[in-house]
Amino acid sequence: MHVVVIGAGEVGTSIAASLASDHEVVVVDVDPDRAEQLKYELDVLTIAGDGTSSEIQSAAEVDRADMVIACTDDDQTNLVACGTAKTLGGGFTIARVKSTDFLRTWEGNEGAFGVDFMVCTDLLTAQNIVRVIGLPAAVDVDPFAGGLVQMAEFEIAEGSPVAGQTVSEADRFESLTFVGLFRNGEMTIPRGDTGITVGDRAVVIGSPESVQSFATDVAPETTPDRADEIVVVGGSEIGYQTARLLEEREFKPRLIEQDPDRARWLAENLPDTVVMEHDATDTEFLSREHVDEADIVVTALRSDEKNLLISVLAKRLGVDRVIAVVDSPDYVTVFEEIGIDIAINPRTVTAEEITRFTYESVAENIAVLENDQAEVLELELTEGCGLVGRPISEIVADSDVRFVIGAITRNRELVTPRGDTVLQAGDHVILLVESDSVSDIASMA
Amino acid sequence: MSGGSRIRVGWRASVGLTGDVLAALPVPLAFPLLIAVYYGESPVPFLAAIAVSLALGAAFRWTRDPAEDLGPREAFLAVALIWFLVAAVGAIPFVVAGVGTVANPVNAMFESMSGLTTTGATVLRDFSLHSRSVMMWRQVIQWLGGLGILILATAVLSEIGVGGAQLMESESQTQDVNKLTPKISRTAQLIWGIYFGLTGLAIAVYFLLGLAVDPQMDLYNAVAHAFTSVATAGFSPEPLSVGAFHPLIQWAVVPFMVIGSTSFVLIYFAINGEPMRLLKNEEFHFYLGAMGTLASVVALGLFLDPSIAYGPEATLRHAVFNVASVVTTTGYASTDYVQWAPAAKHMLFMGMFVGGMVGSTTCSIKSLRWLVALKSFKRNLYTAIHPDSVRPVRISGKPIDEGAIRDIYAYLLLSIVIFFLLAIVIVVDAERADVPVTEFEALGAAATTFLNIGPAFGDAGPYGTFATFPMSTRAVMIVLMWIGRIEIIPVLVLFTKAFWTS
């Protein structure tokens, strides 16, 4: 692949580094020194110049690029760069943005701004945080269809309420599907009467909310419930999105923000969150509001130093789990060495998401399960493909490939698959398939 | 800045607009005129009023200075002037007809102001003295006042343009109307269209029910009562009010009073396929909840009262009807509730302060203000424990601006102060004139006039008259009905120095 990466910051560098060995990578950056430096660090071609300029893009041979990734720190630059690349006939474009407004616009009309795939750093980070908070019992979690759908794998531990139940007994959630069960390393596609035993690994696909509810059923001890105290420190975009996603999962978090105007804005936009206007480094305040008794503290202030201070403070006060947002990738290990449970770096999260995306060709999104025994694929159905226009039960009956459809999204709305659901062109189908049959199923889409 | 003496209000713009409205008054006056011709009664009272309104209208319009814009100050002045002068012109037919208590100019002004402000308090003693056309004029003037003559002006006078929004905001009854369409005059037309439609529906329902069960509900009465039920106004050409009609008709009036007290903006959305906006509105829940609770308590009280023997259906009907009438500030009665036990009467007195929804034809405090005040109080209890928490007050999920909450507190405080001052004036003046008025009756009369509800208790009860109060008390009440209807601020600002000077 010929890949053009615009922006050689941490995200761009990380993406370029992971692609450099297998692909032909061109990196564009405004800073000539940075471009020069990168030339010696990675086996890539570097061009110094404005990534939005068609002249520079032509020099990077965008017209024959398979993929253009715009990942500078500036939203508008990234959008314009993608727009320019599209007019020059560049291939698939990926833009990194911070603003959720741009993301909403793009989601409303995919292809807007000349962007084929948009990664919203802050939202992605918040989704990561919420996943870590909400599903501590999960062995593996992957988002599909832009976060509308989650695949999660749980190990059924001793004492789990679902142990000893059949699949149909355990599956009591509206938008959740049991797609796979691993026992002693062997995969079975579960049916309603399949029993679940201790030591099994269950794979479910559904809305994040229903996966959350299922997690509470599987492992009530470790999964936070509504009674648990979750405190988010800092009302940055990441802090706001984290609280918002927690609200969607029916938690009632508390959020601490020092700036009065921002606090008011947050309180207006987060109806189920208790917003506190105070300096979170004030220990007297923390004990008055019983933050020490919180079950989970997330630090999402704009400064790494303050996040570190509060994380350490929270740990010392006896908070069970502390999750910190760390802006500088270098500090991630420092945080974790000090004893902070999880340190999340937005740039790493973004780079990983984009890199993961570049690996996927036929399917939109892939998760590989249990030593490659099965894969979870996201397929976008095109007009006239073998799956469109037929009810699921008919497709399953006609096919000798072993697969289970876990979720369907249609116009960014979740459709729970049933036997009589008829698939349409444009649907995103998330399914689990045995690894041997991946190419068969891919040829049908 | 050369002293504070120079007048900075574009009063000519306000006066010009008042002239426009006065010049349009012959249109509603033509309706009783036609009734007079139809029944062979004297048309002179209405011709006189038409002549005066045309003359005043012309004079006022001639004063207009086209260079002056209708800003917030001019709108306040225009609102106050228009309500007062339309009431004054409305009094002319009563004086010219020269029959009964309303032949006296102060009484005529009381009746007219009570009508225009949709209060429904009457000084008539003997209803049978008056011609059908004069009785109909009382109904027409209430219908005009129902939605507010200013929205009507905005709907008709398209040239008001930008000033219209200013006007509708000054007459704060309609504060959230602005959102319907980009053009304010178009919005006003939509709102008036709904009002017209509802009135037409009420006429049809009453008339058809009249044909079926009660010949007394003829077309004349159907029109007269339709005018004053959707307007939540309360005048009736019958001395027994709605109590004069068949129970079925009394039940039929209740939904129209309730709809009249429901936000017309939300009714508009409900008609246009978004009923959830109305059904999920917290103010709507509060208003229906308050009415339902009060009605249940009153019904229970009446059932337990050994001196009342209506029978089960009638007990329920009188409880529901009179509570709905008081809460919606209509002021109809289905029975003389003055005879009820004090507990039931006090429940009705409490109901007077609730009022319907903002943006409807109702008066009084209004449910939204109570809801915001209650929620903000609840918030204060919470922040007393968690001083750092930031908690916006939300109504139907939407945060309320802190400034708006302070305005509501100020309005509530001001209303309570004015209400108590008025009650004191009534007691003291009655004492002076040697008229027997108990304190509860005085409180009731103060609430009912200032909050534009209608009948109160004692002599001023639903089957009584305000004519027993001293003339001086009635003069004060005229002013307070005026202030109450345009929600205090537009009148009070006129008495500040800052209003007239920069």
Report on this structure:
- The complex is a heterodimer of chains A (445) and B (502).
- With 445 residues, chain A is an alpha/beta fold.
- Helices cover 35% and strands 26% of the residues of chain A.
- In chain A, helix 1 (10-20) packs parallel to helix 14 (346-359).
- The two termini of chain A are 23 Å apart.
- Chain B has helices at residues 11-24, 26-39, 44-63, 72-97, 105-116, 132-147, 149-156, 162-170, 184-213, 219-230, 247-260, 264-271, 275-279, 282-304, 312-327, 342-351, 367-385, 402-433, 439-450, 471-485, 489-492, 497-500, and strands at 389-390, 394-395, 398-399.
- In chain B, a hairpin with a 2-residue loop joins strand 2 and strand 3.
- The longest helix of chain B is centred in the C-terminal third of the chain and has 32 residues, at 402-433.
- Classes of the chains: A alpha/beta (445), B mainly alpha (502).
- Chains A and B meet through helix 10 and strand 14 of A and strand 1 of B.
User: CA-to-CA gap between the ends of chain B?
Assistant: 9 Å
Largest sheet of chain A: 6 strands, parallel
Helix content of chain A: 25-40%
SS strand fraction of chain B = under 5%
H/I helix tally of chain B: 22
Per DSSP E runs of 2 or more residues, the count of β-strands of chain B stands at 3
Largest sheet entry of chain B: 2 strands, antiparallel
Mean pLDDT of chain B: 87
Globular, elongated, flat, extended or rod-shaped: what is the shape of chain A? Answer: globular
Structure class of chain B: mainly alpha
Give the percentage of residues in beta strands of chain A. 25-35%
Figure out the total of helices of chain A: 16
User: Roughly how many Å is the radius of gyration of chain A?
Assistant: 23 Å
Widest β-sheet, arrangement of strands of chain A: 3-2-1-4-5-6
Distance between the first and last residues' Cα of chain A: 23 Å
User: Spans of chain B of 5+ residues with little confidence (pLDDT < 50)?
Assistant: none
How does the helix and strand content of chain A classify structurally?
alpha/beta
Radius of gyration of chain B: 22 Å
**Quaternary arrangement of the chains shown?**
heterodimer
